[in-house]
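hi! just following up on the protien thing from before. the input was this:
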Amino acid sequence: MPVSLGGQAPASFDLKSVHLPLLALLLKSGDLDLLRREFGQRYGDQPDFFDHDPLLIDLQGLSGDEALPDLLQVSELLRAHRLRPVAVNVAGDAQRAAAQAAGLPLADAPLLTRQGKAPEPSASAAPVAVPPPPPVPAPGALVIDKPLRSGQQVYARGGDLVVMAMVNPGAEVIADGHIHVYAPLRGKAMAGARGNAQARIFSLAMAPELISIAGVYRTSEVPLPEALHGKPAQVRLLSNAEGDRLVIDALST
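and the predicted 3d structure came back as:
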């Protein structure tokens, strides 16, 4: 017969399972100098880009024969950019030992992918055409009404950014979601700043110094085709077996 056992909950605490939003740094090279240089190039002029965000260091992107970076030095670099390493995702005993030597907890999770990136279809699956979403800003998006001058920077943390006036050369617009510029875009635009590969950039006159989605970027050193330069266009990220690349499409007006 079933037996019911009485119990008493602690008065001072409860233990609960929670899911925390984390950034993940997927290391693709064990070259610490290269990491320090590229991190500085990407975030060095944006000291307030991160706000002491918790971060997972993912080592599964390193090949088995590649030298592991000193995770203590990696952690110091990340903290200097206002990031807080909280765990390491490992593959193999060497990476496990490196994490433990650095005093970082282990998080044995599957290999992480870009936020919003769907799994690759199987070879037998028929391709399905998915139309792009219309350029409608999400509720609660940050809206900027005034032109942005050189040296100005606007960051829509956790959402979309809508700019109703010109983004001049030398200005920067950054968003964790989409970026909509209903005017000429002549400065820098970085959408999906925290890894959202589904983010897009829209402008009524696309002529940027730099465009970036989820860290994949293109500068004005590679000029836009004449049919797109200064015209209504959108930028999206295309990911496939050959890698990631930015695709720029004309918008109908």
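Residues 116-135 have pLDDT under 50 and may be disordered.
The chain has two domains: 23-102, 142-250.
cheers
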